[in-house]
Design a protein that fits this description.
Helix content is 44%, strand content 12%. The chain is α/β, with parallel strands linked by helices. α1 (10-21) links the parallel β1 and β2 (25-30).
């Protein structure tokens, strides 16, 4: 499957790397390819820049948001919330249409076995409220490498 991931940060890198290992054709989208590859310093929380990650993942392409979106059969938004609407606008509405329906299949390939579908975009605000507890746990644990599980 051709997958476009919008965003070159930690989430974009993790998803791109894993999906490529699973055999998908992955392209990561960015505003400016030259600027992305010119960054050499980690971000404020210590995540290495895409330019440092990229050499270990030669099978993952880098393109502008519109080019990545145009080539993807599926588009994954891995951008910070405050930038998401602008990034998706830059990707172009014509490139987004009909490409958001395979999330459950991808999550299953990534190893998730108990997927709870909370519905479409209209329900997205509910799960966003978990960000606050996630940030507090990150602070308390001293790492962002943990998960939150819903037990039925």
């Amino acid at each position: 499957m051709k997958i476009a991931i919008m965003g070159t940060g930690m989430v974009g890198q993790e998803l791109a790397g894993r999906l490529a290992v699973l055999g998908h054709d992955v392209t990561v989208g960015t505003r400016d390819i030259a600027a992305t590859m010119a960054r050499t310093e980690p971000n404020p929380v210590g995540i290495p820049p895409f330019s440092a990650w990229s050499p270990a993942h030669p099978d993952v392409a880098l393109a502008t948001f519109p080019d990545a979106a145009a080539g993807g059969e599926v588009i994954v938004n891995a951008t910070v919330g405050s930038a998401s609407l602008e990034v998706l606008r830059l990707a172009g509405g014509r490139h987004l249409a009909g490409k958001m329906d395979t999330v459950t299949a991808l999550l299953t390939q990534l190893g998730h076995t108990d997927i709870i579908d909370l519905g479409g975009i209209s329900t997205a605000r509910g799960p966003e409220m978990l960000v606050k507890i996630w940030l507090e746990l990150w602070d308390a644990l001293g790492t962002y490498e943990f998960g939150i599980k819903i037990v039925r």
